[in-house]
From TrEMBL:
It holds the Pfam family Citrate_synt. One of its GO terms (molecular function) is citrate synthase activity. InterPro entries: Citrate_synth-like_lrg_a-sub, Citrate_synth-like_sm_a-sub, Citrate_synthase, Citrate_synthase_AS, Citrate_synthase_bac-typ, Citrate_synthase_sf, Citrate_synthase_typ-I. It comes from Hydrogenophaga aromaticivorans. One of its GO terms (cellular component) is cytoplasm. The gene is gltA. GO terms for biological process: tricarboxylic acid cycle. The active site is at 313, 371. This is Citrate synthase. CDD domains: EcCS_like. The keyword Acyltransferase applies. Pathway: Carbohydrate metabolism; tricarboxylic acid cycle; isocitrate from oxaloacetate: step 1/2. Keywords: Acyltransferase, Transferase, Tricarboxylic acid cycle. The keyword Plastid does not apply. PROSITE patterns: CITRATE_SYNTHASE.
Length: 436
């Protein structure tokens, strides 16, 4: 970041002395006011719950222009990456800063593929869970559990260890997600098969059985790969910030990623794709397209507590560029599987049509986000609804680990420690007669 020839001056109406604060510029995007010395100079904190105006770090990985609807990974537009690269190229880019050349590409693919298997003991750990446990509960445990299995890559101050932990996580996530699925449906785990692509391998581990050969459908393989690319990173969102904050204490990297998985689970974040599909199924049960108008009235009624899931975004105040790409994939997959007349897809289209015209949504700049379509694609592929967020976690792991590693190698990095505005009871004494 570079110092800008500009400064911010904060003045107070009660006559306290005003303070000057430096302003820094990034390469693109809004400048920032450096308030690090504010408390020392004024004895005051800033108040910004939800981080609406606060940059928590400097980062060179992902950039979003929410008003334009633009998403760049290391400077490359998501549209170009989604059409010209595969997920592992994207992982290489996010971790290393540039796209790989042919040799780097070959080596990176080989490296990831050589780490896809998990310690055999993992399956006994998995066996401790109920078969009907939510896959995100299982995944939070399994990813945290990796810290107990891979001690030799947990010195976060060692760049080599950080690299090995990153590769292990990227390589093993598909295996763990597929194991969580197979455990729930009571089928044998499928070991990874390393002559398949990253997403082809995942499809086989999910839907193959030892009884017969599994043939990967290239349309579904491409669709899944695109889902992975679109979810690979998204700047300082809730789960990424969780990983950074958790990792800032110097904790084990697998444990920090497990914290990200836990945060992602919530319906306002990664759980939105599951919530979106549940919403579509609910409307379908109540009468489908004919009931859309009634449902939209509920969404607009603030007292109903009903939200149009898959719509709205903290950062995008324009069409989410990932949603456009996902919509294309959705069309391809439904065509390939002969599901063009799928009632849920028609319902989603109708909801989108109304929302894009309705004053409530237009005036609040609420557009479909990636989750609006990714759920439909995943459902068509055969992924159960409660595993959608697990797929998101698999794809986002590279973003989390790239951001964690960036933070640790930043010389300005400090343990994260937000302040608060205290509104509770002032000092008081325990009543004299309380001790029994
Ligand atoms: N349905 C109906 N109204 C909405 C919605 C929605 N989905 N989203 C926002 N609003 C309204 C909100 O009630 C508020 O209205 P008003 O100004 O009258 O009080 C206005 O729009 C602004 O909303 P906000 O809550 O201030 O916006 P936010 O930035 O805090 O929330 C959000 C962003 C994603 C949490 C929210 O839009 C939401 O809950 N959407 C549904 C869940 C969803 O799809 N989440 C996935 C996000 S994309 C995946 C990811 O990147 O993690």
């Amino acid at each position: 970041m570079k110092l800008v020839d500009n400064k911010a001056t904060l003045s107070f109406s009660n006559g306290s002395p005003s303070v000057d604060m430096p302003v820094y510029a990034g390469s693109i995007g809004p400048d920032v006011i450096d308030i690090r010395k504010l408390y020392a100079q004024t004895g005051m904190f800033t108040y910004d719950p939800g981080f609406l105006s606060t940059a928590s770090c400097q980062s060179a990985i992902t950039y979003i222009d929410g008003d334009k609807g633009e998403l760049l990974y290391r400077g490359y537009p998501i549209e170009q990456l989604a059409t010209n690269c595969d997920y592992l190229d994207t992982c290489y880019l996010l971790l290393n800063g540039d796209l790989p050349n042919d040799k780097q590409r070959g080596d990176f693919h080989k490296l990831v593929i050589n780490h896809t298997m998990v310690n055999e003991q993992m399956q006994f750990f998995l066996r401790g869970f109920r078969r009907d446990a939510h896959p995100m509960a299982v995944l939070t445990g399994l990813v945290g559990g990796l810290s107990a299995f891979y001690h030799d890559s947990t010195d976060i101050n060692n760049p080599e260890h950080r690299h090995v932990a990153a590769i292990r996580l990227i390589a093993k996530m598909p295996t763990l997600v597929a194991m969580a699925y197979k455990y729930g449906v009571g089928q044998p785990y499928m070991y990874p098969k390393n002559d398949l692509s990253y997403s082809g391998n995942f499809l086989r581990m999910m839907f193959g059985t030892p009884c017969e050969e599994y043939k990967v459908n290239p349309v579904l393989e491409r669709a899944l790969d695109r889902i992975f690319i679109l979810h690979a990173d998204h700047e300082q969102n809730a789960s990424t910030s969780t990983v950074r904050l958790c990792g800032s204490s110097g904790t084990n990297p697998f444990a920090a990623i497990a914290a990200g998985v836990a945060c992602l689970w919530g319906p306002a974040h990664g759980g939105a794709n599951e919530a979106c599909l549940n919403m579509l199924e609910d409307i379908q049960r109540q009468g489908g397209v004919a009931k859309v108008g009634e449902f939209m009235e509920k969404v607009k009624d603030k007292n109903s507590g009903v939200k149009l899931m898959g719509f709205g975004h903290r950062v995008y105040k324009n069409y989410d560029p990932r949603a456009k790409l996902m919509q294309e994939t959705c069309d391809e997959v439904l065509k390939e599987l002969g599901l063009e007349n799928d009632p849920l897809f028609k319902l989603a289209k109708e909801l989108e049509r109304i929302a894009l015209e309705d004053e409530y949504f237009v005036s609040r700049k609420l557009y479909p986000n990636v989750d609006f379509y990714s759920g439909i694609v995943q459902r068509a592929i055969g992924i159960p609804v409660n595993l959608f967020t697990g797929i998101f976690a698999l794809a986002r792991t590279v973003g989390w680990i790239a951001q964690l590693n960036e933070m640790i190698s930043d010389p300005e990095y400090k343990i994260g420690r937000p302040r608060q505005l205290f509104t509770g009871a002032e000092r008081r004494d325990v009543p004299a007669g309380f001790k029994r």
